């Protein structure tokens, strides 16, 4: 499968919003309060993504992942939005579409964002995971994420309780990417 990761552009707002809406509803149906679930419409997501992609912040990176020409996921990283992150960068969004899960896309996306944040001068990264989102927790722990605390994310419509997962040695974490690429190349040989 051909996978590419590239910087998001303004024209990506609608596909990102649609994927964000669908994936969020599936992931948080049993976790989010009904009011938040009802307010997080595709239109609300579209307005937010149009705004974020129109007002690019020099310190935040937003990328999309395409698999065989289809939007498979997206991610964003930059300066932390909560003091619990300390001097780490924050992975603010990391979403993979349902049909593309378990294909290594999430791993590649996380590693790509980590590399971008290291190149921006950060030594570590962190991300918040809603308590109860067990598949995501298992995924981050499998990739070596260390749970170092918890906090309340004020969010736009829902104050969610989150665990903070961190990777404080980005060179070691990124060594996984090099190993992964070599393994992927070896596995694709006839």
Automatic annotation (TrEMBL):
Q: Which domain of life is it from?
A: Bacteria
Pfam families (UniProt xref)? Acetyltransf_1 (PF00583)
What CDD domains does the database record attribute to this sequence? NAT_SF (cd04301)
Whether Transmembrane counts among this entry's keywords is: no
What UniProt keywords are attached to this protein's entry?
Acyltransferase, Transferase
An example of a GO molecular function for this protein is: acyltransferase activity, transferring groups other than amino-acyl groups
- Domain (N-acetyltransferase): residue spans on this chain: 3-171
Protein name per its UniProtKB record: L-amino acid N-acyltransferase YncA
- Native organism: Microvirga guangxiensis
């Amino acid at each position: 499968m051909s996978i590419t990761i590239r910087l998001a552009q303004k024209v990506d707002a609608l596909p990102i919003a649609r994927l964000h809406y669908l994936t969020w509803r599936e992931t948080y149906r049993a976790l989010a309060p009904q009011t938040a679930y009802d307010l997080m419409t595709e239109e609300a997501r579209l307005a937010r993504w149009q705004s974020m992609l129109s007002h690019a912040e020099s310190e935040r990176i937003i990328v999309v992942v395409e698999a065989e020409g289809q939007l498979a996921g997206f991610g964003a990283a930059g300066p932390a939005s909560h003091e619990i992150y300390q001097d780490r960068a924050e992975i603010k969004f990391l979403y993979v579409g349902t049909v593309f899960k378990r294909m290594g896309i999430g791993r590649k996306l996380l590693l790509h964002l980590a590399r971008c944040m290291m190149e921006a001068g950060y030594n570590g990264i962190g991300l918040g995971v809603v308590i109860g989102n067990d598949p995501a927790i298992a995924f981050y722990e499998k990739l070596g994420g260390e749970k170092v605390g918890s906090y309340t994310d004020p969010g736009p419509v829902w104050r969610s309780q989150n665990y903070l997962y961190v990777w404080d040695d980005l060179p070691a974490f990124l060594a996984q990417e090099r190993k992964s690429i070599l393994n992927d190349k070896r596995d694709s040989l006839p």
